[in-house]
Amino acid sequence: NRKPDNDEDHNKLIKTDTIKEEEMDPLFLDSNEPMTEYKRSRHEGVRYECDQCDYISTVPANLKKHKKRKHEGVKYKCNQCDYIAAQSGQLKIHKENKHEGVRYHCDQCDFSAGYASN
Fold first, then answer.
1. Distant-in-sequence, close-in-space partners of 16: CB < 8 Å, separation ≥ 6
2. pTM higher than 0.70, yes or no?
């Protein structure tokens, strides 16, 4: 196995294998190990396929989230207002912004935002 010289070479080395959910180790579905997931998706070409639609992910946890949101109708309701989120992280950000007053301020001007980004 040679190491790629750049991103373009890196992408050329990928082979694609799709794993159906029923073939997956249930513990790996809950895994959040970035390096393991990276190696499996980028170097082994592993993909995780939804058994109910055409969705395919390189990360097993993303497949699990997809199924909860799209096929199981899981929603996250705010206990302080009528807000309903599709993802638990969205509800957390909503509560911090709207009910706890959390703001992220620019260190160079007066701008503030409701959530931090990269």
1. 45, 47
2. no
